[in-house]
Amino acid sequence: MTKKHKLRPVRLAGALLAASLLLTACFDEGAPQLVASGKARMEKKEYKAAAIDFKNALQKDSTQVEARFLLGKALLETGDVQGAWVELSKAREAGFNNDELVPVMAAALILRGENDKFIAEYADVQLTAPQRQAELKAALAIAYGGKGKYVQARAAAEAALQADPNNIVAQLAIAQLLMVSGDKTGALAQVDKTLKAHPESSRPWVAKADLLQASGSEPADVMAAYREALKLDKGDMQAHLGVIQLLQRQRDFDGMQKQLEELEKVQPGGLQGRYFKTVLAFERRDLKTAFELSQQLLKVAPQNPRFLQLAGMIEYERGGYLQAVAHLGKALANSPTPNTVRVLMARAQLRAGDPRKALSFVQPLLDNDNPAPADVYSVAADAYLQMGNSEAAKRMYTKAVKINPGDTRGRTALALADLSEGRGDRALAELKILAGADSGIEADVVMAMAHLRSNRLDEAVAVVDGIEKKQPGKPIAAFLRGRIEQLRGHRDKARAGYEESVKRSAAYLPAATALAAMDYEEGKPAAAVGRYEKVVAADPQSVEATMGLISAKARNGAKAEETRSQLEAAIKRFPEVEAPRLGLVSHLLEIGDAKGALQAANDGVSRFPDNPFLYEALGVAESTTGNFNQAAQSFSKMAALQPNSVQPLMRMEELQEARKDIPAAIVQLRKVLSMKPDHLPAQVRLITLLSRTGKSAEALALAKTVQTQSPNEPQGWTFEGDLLASQGKWPGAIAALRTSFAKRPAEDTAIKLHRALLSGGQPAEAAKLEAEWLAKQGDSPLFNFYLGDQAMARNDFERAELRYRKVVDAQPGNAVALNNLGWLLHRAGKPGALDMVEKALALAPNTPAVIDTAAEIQAATGHLDKALPLQKRAVELNPEQPMHRLHLAQYLIKNGQKVEARTELQRLAALGSNFSQQQEVQKLLASL
């Protein structure tokens, strides 16, 4: 199929605008000299100075129509299209000569991006001067060509040649039309003919360069033709622009800068020069400058599709996705590349979190009888994926790859689908091929993550080495190295990897987030705040970084109202993004302000009535306040917006559990699995509920189903081991957990297997597993915490202290480990107990168990004035925990508050056999 090429826009300074000006008006004293001066400046291409002369002439006599026309023409040459249009329109209203006026107005309309208006107003206009009629018809040929109406374009060009056989614009329009029709030889022959007819003109050389480029000639030959044009006319705009665009394609940004400087010399402040300065800033990723320049362009020509499209691209990269859609929507009608605009609009809406609107932008192309370009199917696939319709997404990716087998992104997505469907070997083989053939890293990253997920760390290292070679100095390889070392239990090496990642790019959020998580574990929330502050400083438009910073400040002790104010400020700053609103709802629920959460969720739904995540937040808020029926309605609306997603059904299942309707919850989970048979969260929950309701055989059968669905993944065997362990069937539990551990030696599985070996009477095997795990990952906090709990349970307090110290060394911010270690030190009479517990209390000020320990130590040291408020707080936070109430009664008695103590003890006595410490309760009551 012959590739079609759009006709180039008309050249302002070329034959279309060339006209000898007639002096038809009488000026008062001084005006003729000003007009003459302006004309002389126009000849020298000093358009700004000429415009000043014409404005001064009009100040002397505003009725002088020719001065008005000349001012419009000068303004057009300076790039002030809007100002030019105003002046030219006034000249037309005053009856200025059409032969002079129409070609200039034609150029203004085309530069304004109003090809349709130009065609509508001037297609049937007849000018008296043959030369002007030829220029008008040539401009119409360009306008028709820009709309893809090549039959009308050819007719207009031929009419131009009939009016003036020597019209260079029409001659070159014919050449372009021949090229569009696929006649490259005829097109070049027409250009050569024009070169002979107009040896003094630069225009045929520009046309030749364009045709050479369109026919795939060597860039050096194209550049040589443009340079020939500039030898003949240093001010040839199209030649300058041709050179600039060629340098842009070659990524020679320094060359672009130099050529723009040359263009500025011959046309200071010109509109096209300003446009490509914006392009250059965008290419260099100087988004701040690019944005500022794009706004200036839109002030001059707010309807120009090229300017709007560029502004949309800039907004997209800046993260202003809805503003990008607004610009691109205005550009769409007159854009020479409407498919590109639609795809970018769709991608912007996807980034804004609205896959339905994204799909609507490309749907007309999907509904067309002709196959759409590959990127259309690709963005449609992304939309379906975000909507939860994985089957439709897969169909779209398949079409994209069929049209373009080199579509690495589509092939990567299909490989990812294979991974999720359990075809890991096939997926990894495809990813390896893609990674080897593609200079990009998308396939490499997916392959690395697959290896990490399966704990194949050596294989992951090899993939990351390849990523580093492809993108040396970029942050992602260093980040993945950090992740590998973290999985190996090498905390210092992991930190070094993450630090290198943020050193390479201060705005790289994943590495900053990983470091912040380590800061939290080490009890350094202020350090986490600092990390997010650096990311926000490097990328102020990052909503995710802003939300991370707010969360970090909250964890560092910011008051609830401060956090609320920060979230509300984020909502104002990012009004088109739902994340801050969702964060506000979550925060208000967390601090117990259910009414405020409900209001915030309702406000969000009002602002984003088609956003399923806000209906989800609203449903959660309603459920928290006990409005179960309203919550069900909200989750139903969420489901309507995500008809192929199982998440709304999972929320409905949570609602059924909140209502304590377990049979209904089980029915709901079965619905989920009928839609998505391999949905692991639903399988986990259903296995749990079946086991809880005595349907162990059915639960075990489901675990076996998971094993069949994902034979290379450990989850199915973990489920089986958990079920058999809950029934005390230790040999079977041990066998299943061994299989799971062999498939992926995860820490939580190691703990479960160790516990099963002990319970199953195999202490030697448990000790062997413990020694092997600690030899490899001796600093593993989770495993050490488990061992500490085991030691506590058997009253091996010295060993428990040793293990909890290991946890605190690795995670100084682990409040529970600090609390347990503090209690052990207190019990043993060792120093540092209160210090440990106060650290835990600072980290978890609302945790009843920690408060209870702090009160116990204060009471033991005689500080009842401190112990009593603490213990009352523990009871207030967890009134159903009888031990906290017993401790409170004991402290009240010690403090001489017998009446209050009796009240607490009587409440405990009412529990009867449900409280194991009734003997102590009765003893205390008897003492009062």
Automatic annotation (TrEMBL):
<feature type="repeat" description="TPR">
    <location>
        <begin position="374"/>
        <end position="407"/>
    </location>
</feature>
<dbReference type="Pfam" id="PF13432">
    <property type="entry name" value="TPR_16"/>
</dbReference>
<feature type="signal peptide">
    <location>
        <begin position="1"/>
        <end position="30"/>
    </location>
</feature>
<feature type="repeat" description="TPR">
    <location>
        <begin position="612"/>
        <end position="645"/>
    </location>
</feature>
<dbReference type="Pfam" id="PF14559">
    <property type="entry name" value="TPR_19"/>
</dbReference>
<keyword id="KW-0449">Lipoprotein</keyword>
<dbReference type="Pfam" id="PF13181">
    <property type="entry name" value="TPR_8"/>
</dbReference>
<dbReference type="InterPro" id="IPR014266">
    <property type="entry name" value="PEP-CTERM_TPR_PrsT"/>
</dbReference>
<protein>
    <submittedName>
        <fullName>PEP-CTERM system TPR-repeat lipoprotein</fullName>
    </submittedName>
</protein>
<dbReference type="InterPro" id="IPR011717">
    <property type="entry name" value="TPR-4"/>
</dbReference>
<dbReference type="InterPro" id="IPR019734">
    <property type="entry name" value="TPR_rpt"/>
</dbReference>
<keyword id="KW-0732">Signal</keyword>
<dbReference type="InterPro" id="IPR011990">
    <property type="entry name" value="TPR-like_helical_dom_sf"/>
</dbReference>
<keyword id="KW-0802">TPR repeat</keyword>
<keyword id="KW-0677">Repeat</keyword>
<dbReference type="Pfam" id="PF07721">
    <property type="entry name" value="TPR_4"/>
</dbReference>
<dbReference type="InterPro" id="IPR051012">
    <property type="entry name" value="CellSynth/LPSAsmb/PSIAsmb"/>
</dbReference>
